[in-house]
Amino acid sequence: MKITLQEKIWNARGWSSGSNPGRGSKLRLALQRGFLEIDMVVGLAILTLAVLPLGYSFARERHLLKIEYSRSVADEIVDGEIEILAAGAAKNLPDGTQNYPVHAAAASQLPPGHFELTKTGNRLRLEWMPDKPRGVGAIIREAALK
Fold this sequence. Notes:
The chain is α+β, with helices and mostly antiparallel strands. It has a domain at 43-144. 53% of the residues lie in helices and 18% in strands. The model has no long low-confidence stretch (mean pLDDT 85).
């Protein structure tokens, strides 16, 4: 009778399925444990392969939402300020380009940047420009002075 390498290993560990019925059950138990370990490793690998891309996509989506939020805040501030300026608040301002101070509390939610007003005759141009463009570009509105 030829003995395989696997049987030699089992015999060395005392798991041989010889005439003792208790030893055969040890062999079956060891095989079952081995299969359970393989199942567990495969399950963890599948879980890891499924969860890691989800985690990355959530982080990317969070970043995109932050950019969109900043853009919408800047839009609202620039829209509101250009309406006020066009309604007549800019009549006493000199022609040319100048920094424009904004007192909106929501401006604290914006990334570092500045507001710039350009007045040419009765044309107004208000823009918010970020200091470091990281997805949020300049927001520009133009209007005619009434």
